[in-house]
Amino acid sequence: MREYSIAAIPADGIGPEVIDAGTTVLASLEKRMGDIKFNIETFDWGSDYYKRHGVMMPADGLETLKRFDAIYFGAVGAPDVPDHITLWGLRLPICQGFDQYANVRPTKILPGIKSPLANVGPGDLDWVIIRENSEGEYSGHGGRAHRGLPEEVGTEVAIFTRVGVTRIMRYAFKMAQSRPRKFLTVVTKSNAQRHGMVMWDEIAEEVSAEFPDVTWDKMLVDAMTVRMTLNPKSLDTIVATNLHADILSDLAGALAGSLGVAPTANIDPQRRFPSMFEPIHGSAFDITGKGIANPVATFWTAAQMLDHLGEHEASERLMRAVELVTAAGILTPDVGGTSTTKDVTAAVVDAIHSSN
Ligand code: ATP
Ligand code: MG
């Protein structure tokens, strides 16, 4: 029996609803496989915890999480708690504390789900976006001078390091190498931003020499949005900075049908710490408690988690089950269906047991 300890942090809004669906599906996979076991411990950290304790998680939270094999995360954010508290109090400390520098966002159109793009269906769009997750535009450097005065200046400094860019580039080339097309697109804005972005281009050239079997090209981020929309088939693996990939992956999620199906993994490739798996969407308070949250992103990220743990067969079995269910039209309202979170979950559990 192979055992894995998983820390579940459902947190806010629809987070608990989709993580509950996810743990149900993991339990059924455990039964179907027979040789793996998930020891899931759930933590009640998040905005409600903040209202009781004044912090989003305990001071020794990271210490507690360290001993787990993986973290299964719901969503953070509440209408009555400021964003900088929810984000900086829980999700970002985990990403930064565990040096999860590679953010991996697979995107494809699942069978039965419609892309807003005309004439684009399953198979026409199959991407993995690799987002640099530790530095760049979101490094927090900058400031304000002469606040409120006519001569006020605000700066927002993007910091790129050779170590940081090289490690994400290497991760991206490896990812491209592991996929059938072995094709990588490196995104920058090096025509207008002539320092850090030019360094990205140079490091891409250097790292590419280590991967002679990977074909690659360069794109400027503005032109990239056009290519994603008009020529999605021409792309496969994509690497971009923290900000650029943030924007491109929202576009990717929308082109694939809904935020509710888009998963993401925050990976520490060196495996010194647990990696974290979550749906891309936020807490979505507008639908919280209605029982209609789409659990597909949370299932898909569980498949990413299983892959990371080396359980490839279980991961494939889970994704096959999800695709059978979406193909059968068992869908939540955000992707045009009338099913509930529970209906979709029950159908995936059935498919796990009945499919080969
Ligand atoms: P955040 O502030 O973290 O971005 P949010 O509450 O704005 O969170 P998002 O996740 O950004 O919510 O989603 C925007 C909208 O998309 C939601 O308000 C909701 O209507 C819809 N949505 C998001 N995720 C799902 C889901 N899993 N199932 C169904 N609808 C969803
Ligand atoms: Mg939002």
Automatic annotation (TrEMBL):
Q: What is its EC number?
A: 1.1.1.83, 1.1.1.93, 4.1.1.73
Identification of the protein by name = D-malate dehydrogenase [decarboxylating]
Ordered alphabetically, the record's keywords are: Manganese, Metal-binding, NAD, Oxidoreductase
Q: What's its job?
A: Has multiple catalytic activities. Apart from catalyzing the oxidation of (+)-tartrate to oxaloglycolate, also converts meso-tartrate to D-glycerate and catalyzes the oxidative decarboxylation of D-malate to pyruvate.
> What reaction does this enzyme carry out catalytically?
(2R,3S)-tartrate + NAD(+) = 2-hydroxy-3-oxosuccinate + NADH + H(+); (2R,3R)-tartrate + H(+) = (R)-glycerate + CO2; tartrate + NAD(+) = 2-hydroxy-3-oxosuccinate + NADH + H(+); (R)-malate + NAD(+) = pyruvate + CO2 + NADH
Note whether Metal-binding occurs among the keywords: yes
Pfam families found in the cross-reference section: Iso_dh (PF00180)
Domain of life of the organism in this record? Bacteria
